Amino acid sequence: MAFELAACAEMLWQDKPISWRAARLHEMGFGVGLWNWPAWDIDALARTGANFTIMNGYLRGRLADAEGADMLLASAAEAVEQGKRLGVARYNLHGTGLGDQGLPIPQLAHVAPGMWQRARDTLHRICDLAAREGVVFTLENLNLRDHPGCPFSSTNDVLELVSSINRPELRINLDLYHTQIGEGDVIRWAEACLPWIGEVQVADNPGRCEPGTGEMHWPNIARALQKMGYNGPVGMEAFAARTPEEALDAFRTAFTLSPQL
């Protein structure tokens, strides 16, 4: 059983052109994740032949109000149109809009009860779009220390939304770096989310760098994911504490496991 490994191109080799980064990841056997795709030359990225595993699935919009939902749907359709040029596998969403460099922005401190149903309605519309286009969206958890004021961001909130919708076009992008900061207990959260996981993302804490640089025991986490039957994509969304090549080697080592006996 092997995980499909990928890494966020925008967090590595930041002095290099994005197409160079994508080509280098491809050369090393990794898929490529993107954040701020409007800033990049899509044609140049396509020419690299890289496997683009995930990118931001919207630029504007919100889940829980009518105006924001319409903006989100229009922006998601634009993302899919561009992503299809790269063969992107998954389109990522958050519970809030995006700001500079494709990063989530604060929206409000508290979620009123009625906003949950409006968020579900919006995500059903996203699923309808995904079904028409033959693609998959993921909803990612965040931690509120790094992203205060971002609604529907906790691991529990994301699990509640995605499991209640329970459609194959919407999966969880389970970011274990954010789970470790927000809730801890990452293995049991992975077990709870397992039926709906579309991707697992990793970075060590503190520092948000590669496995082996912080407090998280990634070989144990990887073995737990294997034991529970997860064999899907794992993306390193982390900065490099050493060279990017060394960081990627550490990531690969942590998630390369022998077959279960």
Report what the structure shows.
With 261 residues, this protein is α/β, with parallel strands linked by helices. 39% of the residues lie in helices and 15% in strands. The protein has a single domain (4-254), classed as Divalent-metal-dependent TIM barrel enzymes (TIM Barrel), CATH 3.20.20.150. It starts with a strand and ends in a 7-residue tail after the last helix. The mean pLDDT is 93.
Stretches with pLDDT under 50, minimum 5 residues: none
Number of domains: 1
Topology as a string of helices (H) and strands (E)? EHEHEHEHEHEHHEHEH
Q: How would you name the CATH homologous superfamily?
A: Divalent-metal-dependent TIM barrel enzymes
Q: Which overall shape is indicated by the principal axes computed on the Cα atoms?
A: globular
- Say how many strands there are: 8
Within the CATH hierarchy, at the fold level, what is the topology?
Answer: TIM Barrel
CATH class: Alpha Beta
Q: What level of helicity do the residues show?
A: 25-40%
The separation of the N and C termini measures: 11 Å
**Beta strand %:** 5-15%
Number of helices: 9
Residue-averaged pLDDT: 93
Strand order of the largest sheet: 1-2-3-4-5-6-7-8
Q: Structural class of the helix and strand makeup?
A: alpha/beta
Radius of gyration from CA coordinates: 17 Å
What summary fits the major beta sheet?
Answer: 8 strands, parallel, barrel
CATH architecture: Alpha-Beta Barrel
